[in-house]
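<tokenise_the_fold>
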Amino acid sequence: MAETKLPKIALGAWAWGNDGTFGSGIDPAELKPIFDAAMDAGLNLWDTAYAYGMGTSEKVLAGFLENLPRDSYLVSDKLTPQCVDTSEPDPVAAMHGMQLELMGLDRFDVYWVHNTSEAPKWTRALAEFFEGRDDAPVIGVSNHNLAEIKEADAILREHGLKLGAVQNHLSLINRSSIDSGILEWCRENDAVFFSYMVLEQGALSGKYDTAHPMPEGSARAQAYNPVLDKLEVLNAKLAEVAEAHGVGPAQVPVAWAIAKGTLPIVGVTKERHVSDAAAAASVELVDDEVAELEELADSLGINAIRFWEKVMD
């Protein structure tokens, strides 16, 4: 990872999978201008997974990457244990090969063990698969706590590899990866921490409030609509900080994540999401602003742990 020039922000294609998490379906034709705007802005690190619509997100992204020089973009993809075909003689090779073929690629730049379901088993299988290979990607783990991260790194080191990245939910209202020492471990071990859901799927963007709730029927509406009154308070403070920096409210949580030393993944479904992300990369929050935001977030007592997650300890 140290040899690869990374942008300050990764762009997430989770919503591109149209799996119901974000509400109504998204037409791939509407996403092409968004992709082009991102590449023009130098945001060329794309995060996807087979689990995002069972290949849908990967296929949409692949269509945009086709015919571009391979060194002009970076792709972060995932081995999701629940999606692996265990009837295959080598399930990791089969999953990895299927994903590469789906995307028309010869390699991934970052490859993750997506969650902790039998994670040591899959980390070991991944380590055996990539051991000694010149085309080995940066290997990361997602949704792991500190003990699980250390275990994964130890397994990889047995095979001449190391854990190069950690991807966890991190936002102003979910800082358990900081409190548990995970960020500190990443700094000490030269691993990049990718923070996902820094905007809490739009809840910290300033777009939604009690008068304008999230679209009913979506998973995020179930999670955030019941606490929109509390989120309004935090979003008001975000707007205040944003005004001081001449940006929009949605850029402040992203700038906060960068200030904490992480690489945020920002989901993009509209061109303004790209321009917001690009602008956020240039915002430098002062220590007092960071402290005030965190203190207010703590006072609201919002539980942002989602159904697939756990509190990091």
Q: What stands out?
A: The chain is about 40% helix and 10% strand. The first helix runs from residue 28 to 40. Residues 57 and 264 are 19 Å apart (CA to CA). The mean pLDDT is 93.
